[in-house]
Amino acid sequence: MSFKIVFFDIDGTLLNEEKQLPADAKEAVRRLKQQGVRTAIATGRAPYHLQELARELDIDTFVSFNGSYVFSEGKVIYEDTIQKETLAGMEEMAAQYEHPLVFLNAHEYATNHHNHPFVLDAFSHIKMGPPKFDPAFWRENHVHQGFLCCEEGQEKGFVESFTEVSFVRWHPFALDVLPKNGSKARGIEALLNHLGISAKEAAAFGDGRNDKEMLAYVGAGVAMGNAHEELLPFADMQTKHVDDGGIRHGLEMIGLLK
């Protein structure tokens, strides 16, 4: 199979634990582009939290917010948002347990708790500044994605009560909150339709639980050597660790590099 486009997750895939881009990964992406293969980023991050990396890799196409906001060559291709009724209900329940919420859209992000340690820890993990304090943010703006900040297991009541959204944990203290059936695969599908490329002609690299649908959807789903164990059943193959030439080796495995 000759792949026309490759999607790369960011954290744990392109970037290592220190949020650094290994030189061999950068060179592999450069060689891929040189051969005429399209490259794209597929991440849970917001658009403004990926721009520095996108510029370094000269990538102008990205699936952000786990598929809720897709941008390519200067145009918004697809977007989805969380209903305000859902956000109101979640805020009411979260207040009972003092769980903070973070609200994100394509332009900015805010939280309803000032300097909560769970929020600070989550954003420190991705080496991004904390959100501004604005409890009314979701009432006045569209929200493409939310974060529910709580410890493992404490999200059970939210998952059972708010079936119109999806929850995916990415940090010990934080879960993504996505529009119903939201996933990287949905955003990728919208982009591929726009580009006239079939899913079989696409490949993807990922390491986290939010990469399951993406790896299962494309023609070649490659899990990183450092991937979460829950991701492996959804991958076609597993490459090396991000710090051990994982991107280059994976591209060699699917025949795009020699």
Can you walk me through this structure?
There is one protein chain. The protein has 258 residues and is of the alpha/beta class. The protein folds into two domains: 5-79 and 182-253, 3-Layer(aba) Sandwich (Rossmann fold); 84-179, Hypothetical Protein, Haloacid Dehalogenase-like Hydrolase, Chain: A, domain 2, CATH 3.30.1240. It has nine helices and 14 strands. The protein has helices at residues 23-34, 51-57, 84-97, 117-125, 137-140, 156-161, 184-195, 212-217, 246-253; strands spanning 5-8, 38-42, 61-64, 69-72, 75-79, 101-104, 109-111, 132-133, 145-148, 165-171, 174-179, 202-206, 220-223, 237-238. An eight-stranded mixed sheet has the order 5-4-3-2-1-12-13-14. Strand 1, helix 1 and strand 2 form a beta-alpha-beta unit. It is globular. The model has no long low-confidence stretch (mean pLDDT 96).
Short key terms for the protein model shown above:
alpha/beta; Rossmann fold; Hypothetical Protein, Haloacid Dehalogenase-like Hydrolase, Chain: A, domain 2; six-stranded mixed β-sheet; 30% helix; globular
Indicate the topology.
Elements: E1 5-8, H1 23-34, E2 38-42, H2 51-57, E3 61-64, E4 69-72, E5 75-79, H3 84-97, E6 101-104, E7 109-111, H4 117-125, E8 132-133, H5 137-140, E9 145-148, H6 156-161, E10 165-171, E11 174-179, H7 184-195, E12 202-206, H8 212-217, E13 220-223, E14 237-238, H9 246-253
